[in-house]
Design brief:
Three copies of one chain form a homotrimer. Helix content of chain A is 21%, strand content 24%. The first copy, chain A, is of the alpha+beta class. In chain A, strands 13, 14, 15, 16, 17, 18, 19, 20 and 22 form a nine-stranded antiparallel β-sheet that branches. A four-stranded antiparallel β-sheet of chain A has the order 2-3-4-9, with no helix packed on it. Chain A has a four-stranded antiparallel β-sheet with strand order 5-6-7-8, with no helix packed on it. In chain A, α9 packs antiparallel against α10. Chains in contact: A-B, A-C, B-C. The interface between A and B is large, with 46 and 42 residues.
């Protein structure tokens, strides 16, 4: 499967000559059972619901186009079962949570979290039917307010990976999700598109993040990392240089820095504001689900609001479809831009430019990985661990390094880009990854580098 | 056409290995024109609307996937016509009821209840077009507040059958209907599933019928009758034995006993609480339509409420989708269990057990009958008549027969089953069917039998 | 492609014998890209929105099954662009109107009204991508409160045609539209169906236009004109004869006379009340869009109401679906009759009669024209012009010509028909078409003719 050919219009007023619409890039975008993308994504633990939603009542969910139910036995264990009872098909969203499992409302069959049939109480006690069949179940677990499932081949189930940013001291992780009526990929790849922040979030209507620095077109780099890739954006802001990286952990986990960063005050290796998976509900629906990180140093301007984070809601602008249509037209947000790229964006109609290198790189990495899995190999996983934690790379760093005296704008832009490259080397490379004090060590290295640069400039 | 093969999962956490979903059992479930099930069901009069709905304005209806209009000419006669005018296709739901027919709003064509074109008033008087064509019509009649249609081959139109339970003295028949967004069969076969009453209606959440006796797993039998089949459930309740039968008159008529029975007081051959057809609106929609029977002896605890019976409503728990989703999750009813078996239940995914013998028997009978019709034979009809009335078998009977002294629970359950069998022989067999005083005769026979048993026990 | 065969039912109660539904007449009805009807309709300027809707915000529209956006640059020029941005596909309904074009919200690409890419601001200044591609655009213009587009081959773009009735002195043209959930053809052809006015608008329920004269079955003719066809209806009303013509300008423009005409007062060549295109939104949706004409002599009874004309609304009865269903059943209007002819009317199920000659004629003309275009020829356009204006033929004329003394009703009907024919010759034929004072000249000719007839009668 290769991406379809593109044919652009080249004349004014030529829409009449538009060919029939090409198909979407099925290899990358489709997620149903047996699709290359779906099989690849199934090899990773995926969050499916807020733990708070999986309480006394079962929660109907949908993943990879399958209808399922997540539930919590009274013992506290969570389970993910196929929606329809193995007996007569009644939906388990109407079942009752019991001590050790979920009991179907219709004839009382009781299922364990693993799908074992524990009781078929309408049958005589000597019935052995329940030992010969299992209800469809997927492994499930709960972590920091989210319920996760593993939807891949049982023999390939990976350890649940814990990233360093999940366990940062002083961070409060608040779970939330937002459902998007479109394919997962176009939502996910937006994280590797720093240019949309310049236009969508700042220049085209007004500054969604209340800081003009976002409207500066940055120097950009898109290096790979042991877990995937990051973007590196570097901007001059007065005597400061702001270097920012967002992190994609393949396939569908992203970490985003603080949206209210304004580049005003020096900081080194300030960490994650959002950890989010973009999960494949079905080919035409996805869900951003994860945590907002709250900590005092991450919100110097006091604009964050934990109370807005939860079901279909988060505390920054334009992330869901709840606003009236005309308001969304006047000041569109991420939700409007991304869902409107068609239910499944058609790559063959795009005209990618230099500002889309991040998106193109991500697609190339995903395609390589899903083909690897389709060929029977394992997906690439990070080889690094710090006390069991996998290092991540999202950060905002602001260093006070004025432009060199007399430098032209072009020369300074190269200087700024060079600062971004060097800081990225510090963050991604080096031997600090297995150091329990990684954060402090990286910060010190950046401070040293920054001081050297200031001296060189002066 | 045979039912598709089933393949069950047999390992915990094995949902990943689920095959692609098999198809529904089309032979049994589908109802569109030319389908075996549809052609079989078309051989019987089917209720389509409440008479009260077919008044000054035509009533748009849908049956067997066809769009139709039921109407009442001012003469009082009811008719069922194809929805779209034979002239230019305008919908006859916008037509006007006149003395002898229905007049299309668009150009005034007038149709009789039989589809004859009575007027084409835009044409010159000498026009003969109206003699050369007929509008599509189905035979219709009105009976006890319901409008019925016959949708089968004209040459096979049966007499409208009147069952004894339609004409019981002291019974008030109150018409009602409820539309279900699912195939007719899964709703209909629930009548032959007495075990769901134990679990859905009693044990799993709480007692919908306010009587714990429903939660006792009964001895069960599923004998055939001259018109179809019944279930026989027999339960020990203190010194009493409660024997209950619900009746399926093939293909899609069911009669159900009283839902507020509590087994407390002796009664013999107490009759019908609900007469209901489950009609095929289309493959994925059906309608329960019929009557609630109201009489003083049928409601000793005063829980029935005639005012709740009508359009999309009936006077007992859980019969429609009007409750909020969360309430339906907390205490699901028949509507929730049955509609959630998928739009068309997939038999190949079921695991039927001994508690599903009634459902399996009903499917076998329906399949035999629809194949008979597909082969050009007539469906089986009851040969019995009492003054033109066809006997039916639904009843609740409570006899005071204590357990034999010293009998073990297992021995007593066999005794209870034997009492159920014998009472069923009295109700279904014998020579009383053509006796105008059948009811009294059956009751006397049961009383005799009950007295003998009491004596034998004592 | 030929229209499919028809098979009528001929027996009462024979709906069971209905064949499977035939298909719609795709050649005439379908409008998607490449369909014969769609390609024909694309050869004409089509109105797509009210100018008042295309203001600060772009307006999402749909035509010929294509999703588009109409917008107004701040310079005032209107444009019609493909909905999805050529860069990454975000919808231009969320774009910002600027001085010279429309700027996508996502990455700031700027498009001119002709589809030229004016800026790709995320790219380096030296980027030349924007010179090598064009965004899909259709020519657009604004005229008297409507925005029009041309959707055909650029090389065949016709001059925007102005009809004499667009520029009548004393006329106020108020734009409006109403969307119909059905194919365009069944809505359009209603204009050539004068008999529906007798039944739908007058006799079947009550007189929608408050004048009993509409209920008289008229003498009818359907002559062709240089631009298409008209109907000619002629009715006796006391000593008056009312001759009325509505005009179809091929393919989908219609002009309709005053709906409150009552035949009471003499008038000659009174002109247009409604100019309306029936536009193809997609195969199953159309839009009536055009102007209500307001002038004092067009509304002698004061029943018109300009304030009711606009988005999804017009000032006469039964033109949209806003009334409650039961009200629409009691007194159906055009909207109810036409939308209920199925989403796409099935001609093969119709039984056309002499009262449908206008509809049949229109279909024949359309079929001939669309085949001409499919064969590579140009559609027929009017050769006539008066100072650049194309003459049109809609009129109401009431002449005082009593029935001849002693004439039988049949004889008088022939006389009335003859008057209609002669007045139509005056209106359609003759050498007045290029006369700047055509209206006055036609009126004088009719007055002369009328006076002669009165003398002949007396």
């Amino acid at each position: 499967m290769n991406a379809p050919q593109k044919r652009s219009l080249t004349e004014p007023y030529s829409a009449y000559h538009r060919d029939a619409l090409p198909e979407e890039d099925k290899e990358l975008a489709h997620v149903e059972r047996g699709s290359p993308g779906g099989e690849y994504l199934r090899r990773f633990w995926q969050p499916v619901a807020l733990a708070a939603e999986v309480g006394e009542l079962p929660k109907r969910i949908r993943m990879f186009g399958e209808d399922l139910v997540a539930f919590r036995a009274k013992s506290g264990r969570v389970g993910i079962l196929e929606l329809h009872c193995s007996h007569r098909g009644a939906s388990l969203e109407y079942a009752v949570c019991e001590e050790n499992g979920l009991r179907c409302c219709y004839h009382g069959w009781l299922y364990g979290v693993d799908g074992r049939v524990l009781e078929t109480p309408g049958d005589p006690p000597e019935s052995t039917l329940r030992f010969s069949i299992c209800h469809g179940a997927y492994p499930a677990l709960e972590y920091k307010g989210l319920v996760f499932g593993y939807f891949g081949p049982p023999e390939n189930k990976p350890e649940f990976p814990i990233y360093d940013s999940f366990e940062l001291q002083g961070d409060r992780l608040v779970p939330y999700y937002i459902t998007y009526p479109c394919n997962w990929l176009q939502v996910h790849e937006n994280v590797m598109d720093p240019v949309h922040a310049v236009f969508l979030h700042t220049r085209v209507t007004y500054s969604h993040f209340a800081a003009d620095v976002w409207g500066e077109l940055p120097a950009m780099e898109f290096p790979q990392t042991p877990t995937g890739m990051i973007y590196v954006t570097s901007r001059r802001w007065g005597d400061n240089v702001w270097v920012r990286s967002n992190d994609i952990i393949l396939p569908n986990l992203a970490q985003v820095g603080h949206v209210w960063e304004d580049g005003a005050e020096p900081k080194e290796f300030s960490r994650v504001a959002i950890t989010r998976w973009t999960t494949p509900v079905d080919n035409r629906t996805c869900r951003i689900i994860g945590w907002r990180h709250f900590s005092s140093d991450a919100d110097p301007r006091g604009l964050a609001d934990e109370r807005q984070c939860g079901v279909e809601s988060v505390d920054f602008f334009g992330q869901n479809g709840a606003r009236p249509y005309e308001d969304r037209q006047k000041i569109p947000g991420d939700y409007d831009a991304q869902t409107s790229q068609r239910p499944i964006a058609i790559h063959a109609l795009e005209n990618l430019t230099r500002c889309d290198i991040g998106v193109a790189t991500l697609r190339r990495l995903l395609r390589a990985e899903l083909r690897r899995v389709a060929n029977g190999e394992d997906p690439k996983l990070s080889p690094l661990r710090v006390n069991g934690l996998v290092p991540t790379y999202t950060h905002d760093t602001v260093v006070r390094v004025p432009a060199r005296t007399g430098a032209s704008p072009a020369t300074d832009k190269e200087f700024v880009r060079e600062i971004g490259r060097r800081i990225t080397e510090i963050v991604v490379g080096g031997d600090h990854h297995t150091d329990p004090s990684r954060t402090e060590r990286v910060r010190a290295m950046i401070r040293d580098y920054s001081a050297q640069q200031r001296m060189a400039v002066a």
